[in-house]
Description:
Strand content: 35-45%
Number of helices: 7
Radius of gyration: 41 Å
Shape: elongated
Amino acid sequence: MHYSLARAGLEARVLMSGGRECGGRSGGDRPAAPARVGGRQVGVAASMLLGCGSASHTRGALVLASSGGGGGGAGSGARVCSGTGSGRVARRRGPGRGPGTRHGAAEGRRRGAGAAATAAERRVPDPAERAGEAAGALPRHLQLYQGVYHLRGLILGAQDRAGRHQLPVSGTPPTPTPPRPAPTTARELFLALGPRDPDPLLNPFFSFGLLNSNSFTVIRDDAFAGLFHLEYLFIEGNKIETISRNAFRGLRDLTHLSLANNHIKALPRDVFSDLDSLIELDLRGNKFECDCKAKWLYLWLKMTNSTVSDVLCIGPPEYQEKKLNDVTSFDYECTTTDFVVHQTLPYQSVSVDTFSSKNDVYVAIAQPSMENCMVLEWDHIEMNFRSYDNITGQSIVGCKAILIDDQVFVVVAQLFGGSHIYKYDESWTKFVKFQDIEVSRISKPNDIELFQIDDEKFFVIADSSKAGLSTVYKWNSKGFYSYQSLHEWFRDTDAEFVDIDGKSHLILSSRSQVPIILQWNKSSKKFVPHSDIPNMEDVLAVKSFRMQSSLYLSLTRFIGDSRVMRWNNKQFVEVQALPSRGAMTLQPFSFKDNHYLALGSDYTFSQIYQWDKEKQLFVKFKEIYVQAPRSFTAVSTDRRDFFFASSFKGKTKIFEHIIVDLSL
Length: 664
């Protein structure tokens, strides 16, 4: 009587990893003798489970395959192995499971010789066997023999297993085993083949596994734990959709792995990392999503020494029906960026400026409420910004660093008490007052802009009072002196130096008129009125930036929409309008090829926009919360990028710009 794995939808089959078939020919032309139970032939698979058959010089192998095919039947009786002996296999199985001594092995060989000859004469190939062999379903050296699910438990019971599985009376079929749920994972599939306590198939000596045409969908972590010497594993024709990252952990001897003809669309990163001996990998018959999740596999295919079948893509549309190896690049598509809070400074501020000196990075922060200009230094060990020096004053609204040769100056603009210039004194390792700025010209400073024309250093202070004058100052090797007063009564809020078509310009913003553009006259070496930006009243600040060699301006408006404009070789034309009610700053900044705009609002969350190359527009990227932001400043150090968000009513925040790999 034949007992298959119908309840599990499977059958246990055992194959010799050396290529010889148990129950076939094991040496010369002499066929190996099958095992017998109660005088009946039980098939070579059962012989393997018992340690019977001509297997003394080969290693066992676990094979899990679909139902069907010929094989031996199972009878009943008290005798377990007839006509065979295998000391080697039996010793692996442990005491009490077979002839595990040298005498037992020798005795088995003597008995097996006679039984094998008899079996060779009696055995007539089954027609189904011949048809299967002719069909070539598997290579000849991988042809399988059917095992017996219930018989395995009976045989173990016959080997003094404390009476747990008793052989039935001769001629009586075994009691049917209650139905078990169909296994859904590889681990369950293995465990479905026998009793719960020590599983003789799950031992380190099995080297071949075949899990074909089943219905399980998941291979979880450590599904093959304990099979340290497994060399061949074929998991084909199933419905596998998910494979855990550590599914094949511990299979360091595995040389051949097939996952063909499943429903796999993606594999977890480094799922093959433990397969040190892998020679061949078959992924045919799966349709992979060749998106960011496949990036690691794309890179692994480029580096591995294993032979891997073609990996076909089902998507995205541009890669459909193409090979994964033909994908051009994942670099741009599989990375994005983000801004995360790196450090919070427990004080208010209105402006931030950065400078570098002797390979160190510094930041100068204006703190009007604390009457300080705080200088921070990047700490290469602690990886944060720490206090370096503190310049005191009265209602400081701006700190601007100027580097001339090896000297570092800081222009400190104050609302009261006049503005001053400080110089770093190395002997004192601090900033000391270097020069005063005329009170008569600067009454209410609002912005400081540094620039250079023909190797000469300048800075301009925009004055926002009716009584003040926006003034340009020039370096004369001994100090800075007043060089040019720009215009009166316009209440300038911002000054921006910009190079337009190779010529130097200043753009002055004012709440009382549209922004005006001044051009540097090379003859008089003065700025003269040139043009304006029409229809843009009430602009608080103008900032210039470049993308792909094109010149752009960002214009901040407190009421109405802020604007992004581009120079078209004749004038600035509008590119985009950004809703900005309550905005005090619209700051452009870039990190490598990523271009951003930070829009700070007093009424709502601040917005970070990112430039979209396809749309040629800035799109919303991230919201950040900063109370009453007044400036955003990009700072780079130690291959890390940051931007400072000053806050007039809350804490100053330092955000780090990070690269996020979407393929992880």
